[in-house]
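pasting input
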Amino acid sequence: MSPRPTIKTIAKETGLSTATVSKALNGSPQVRPDTRDKILDVAKKLGYEMNLSGVQLRTGKTHQIAMITVISSPHDDEWGGVGYAQLVYGVSDVLHDTPYRVVQYQASSYEESFDIIKRIVANRKADGIILPGTRVKDKRVEFMQAQDFPFVTYGLTEAEVPHAYVDTHNQRIVSICVERLIAKGHKRIAMLNADMVLMYSRDRENAYRQTLQDAGLKFDPSLVANGELTPAFGREQFFEMSMFDDPPTAYFCANEATAMGVLSGFHVRGYEHGRDAVVIATDDLNVSQYFSPPITTCYLPISKPSQVLGEFMLKLLNGEAPEKLQKLFVPDLIERSSDELRK
Amino acid sequence: MSPRPTIKTIAKETGLSTATVSKALNGSPQVRPDTRDKILDVAKKLGYEMNLSGVQLRTGKTHQIAMITVISSPHDDEWGGVGYAQLVYGVSDVLHDTPYRVVQYQASSYEESFDIIKRIVANRKADGIILPGTRVKDKRVEFMQAQDFPFVTYGLTEAEVPHAYVDTHNQRIVSICVERLIAKGHKRIAMLNADMVLMYSRDRENAYRQTLQDAGLKFDPSLVANGELTPAFGREQFFEMSMFDDPPTAYFCANEATAMGVLSGFHVRGYEHGRDAVVIATDDLNVSQYFSPPITTCYLPISKPSQVLGEFMLKLLNGEAPEKLQKLFVPDLIERSSDELRK
DNA sequence: CAACTTAAGTTAAACGTTTATATTTTTGAC
DNA sequence: GTCAAAAATATAAACGTTTAACTTAAGTTG
């Protein structure tokens, strides 16, 4: 087994210097076309593949994209990471034919994720960072901006300076879903939402209030719950709210896991969907079509934003301006239930 | 902003040579304890963190663990990667306080995954490989063994030479579940299983046949289905099998996604769980407790095997023998339904 | 106390790249 | 043909680390 070829091998083989080889491989215009071809031929013949640590040492380029995920407790809640996971796949997919790889950095809290980011930036452990789970005021975003470090968020923030982001159009989602419920005659609409430190939770709550107000309905804070979007959360909240004197007739869930929890609560308490109450949700895994019963959702396959996340990252690394790299996706309403309460 | 400290900085600061600094940082015995302490102090004071590409260039150590995942089409089936995803989390978690990182390599077919592995090995792009989804005869495993490249599989193989692996005890799972169903009076038990090229599918089918035979029941090939373990697969198979003249009264599903699909089929066709048929499943996300109705499962939280996967990898890199690094987990039966058909 | 061993450090080279600078070759004008 | 300018290629240093080989100082032994 011969040792793996380096530019030195190619240089020896072609009788040229390593400098010329390097330039040829990087497509520099200062090497004659015919010599470039010769070099590329030999490189291919030898099965040459560049040594990333050599490049990295010299240029600082790591060819790594750090993906930060915050999971409070990976052991307790097995469903937890599912959403993030799909993100990783989409991004990996886009980077497939580039020299970039996705590297996973896992934090158990916001603070820890900030520390991790500081270390990545300080030690140039990656060329760029992908950050899901943005907060309204996000110190991490401010930090990366201050350090001029390339990053794309999945989610908006209230940053002074524009940054690259991808997100779903949360306001639209909420208005689509809540307006539908109102049109179907619902007056008591519960919203099971994520933690309010997250930007998208705040956006959704605002849109929820606005939509109610536009329809002349009163906002009732007891119908809004915030927490980790798990099935457990959905079920607990259903148990609580269904005991109210004037319980909700519709549950609007921020994801499928939560919706599944509410449906589970229905089953436990003998509720029937469409008779006692209905569930509607935001959906990115399209698994709600297999619920019993299938529920109406606002669906955006998570592969879409995650692909764009990867594309934006590549463009960012190519020097494109962050303010040009912003995209909001509008999900489709998928009607699977009438969502009208039968008398 | 001062440039990040290197061993040179530490050397200058302490008045020692870079060689001594390097040795001290690596805990070499040929440096006096007090000088070592001094060096470590200065290193901490400066916030020194080793430059991995420097190390890699010199030693060949990449500090990367490659995680190979095969997903036929990341776009179509959104549920697909969920299982793998949890694996990544568990492994990342174990490696958290080590210099190792998990790097995702995604393939769309067995062949492509083999190519990827060849490239990783040939170009030493990682220090070790974690390979889920093993086949009965797995060329990739043979290749890595021939190349003496460290790897741990999630799943068994029929390899000549022993290798490091983690897996669930598939035979036990099947006998636990199928014996239970038989004890509850079921005679027609369907098995919804993964593709037969996968080792665990074969093991499960063998155990299934054996358990039936031990109970004096006849094996009926039309009650066994193989395919991608998605909700869609579960539902389709239910639709087909429920039309048989002598349809199954129990569906044993190889994972939760498939079980969800069967339950969805129940709902569509007006089947009632416990009256018309029952569903039982292998479970690693513990989400089946939120199904409507919750079903009985053989549960092993995926965080467990994935943790051990990471631990085994670290031990392997520490020079431990692969044949010492083998573990089978036996799941717990979680009874959530009587699984007896009422008359 | 000479002769040797051991301990603790140092020096310098090497890993695979890129790139500023230097050198050689080619080109074009006269 | 000569000469300068332009184009193509070569030389060598640098990135941060480890490590074989070497040096020096300090013990140990008979």
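fyi Residues 16-20, 23, 30-32, 35, 54, 56-60 of chain A lie near DNA strand D (CB under 10 Å from a C1').
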